[in-house]
Amino acid sequence: METPQWPPPPQPTGDNRVILGVVLAIGLHVLQVPLAIVVGLIGCGLESMDGYCAFFAFVPLLFIGVSQIAYQGPTAFLLWKRNSRSLLQGLIIGAAATFLLNAACWGLLVGGGTLLG
């Protein structure tokens, strides 16, 4: 008597992997906060950085839309080399949404929320 052959488990579809890429982008943003604080504390510990210790901690967080290139770029390159295109698409969607939200918040902050016209 033959043993029954079970079908292989289903592989994640492209849509699921795109969502996973967006979650990866958000997770990398969450990791940036403690890393920025640690870098700021290291900057405060150096005597040569007398007045700039808060600069190193808060500037990357305020400009997260721009500073995300430091960690999203290498991650995107790694995903591209591993041929994980749908995961890479999700990462790019998450990074673009972060950049646009950060630019909109800075626009409201600098523009004072006034409407043109």
Keywords:
single chain, 117 residues, 74% helix, 0% strand
Protein model, in words:
By secondary structure, this protein is an all-alpha fold. The protein has one domain. 74% of the residues lie in helices and 0% in strands. The chain is built from 5 helices and no strands. Helix 1 runs antiparallel to helix 2, helix 1 crosses helix 5 and helix 4 packs antiparallel against helix 5. The longest helix has 32 residues. The mean pLDDT is 80.
Beta-strand portion reads under 5%
Tell me the distance between the termini: 81 Å
What is the mean predicted local confidence, pLDDT? 80
Number of H/I helices: 5
Number of domains: 1
User: What's the total number of strands?
Assistant: 0
**Any idea what the shape is?**
elongated
Alpha carbon gyration radius: 21 Å
Percent in helix: over 70%
Could you give the order of the helices and strands?
HHHHH
**Biggest sheet layout:** none
Class computed from helices, strands and strand pairing:
mainly alpha
The low-confidence parts are none
Could you outline the blueprint of secondary structure elements for this entry?
Blueprint: H1 14-45, H2 53-62, H3 64-67, H4 69-81, H5 85-111
Helix pairs in contact: 1-2, 1-5, 4-5
Give a short overview.
By secondary structure, the protein is an all-alpha fold. The chain has five helices and no strands. 74% of the residues lie in helices and 0% in strands.
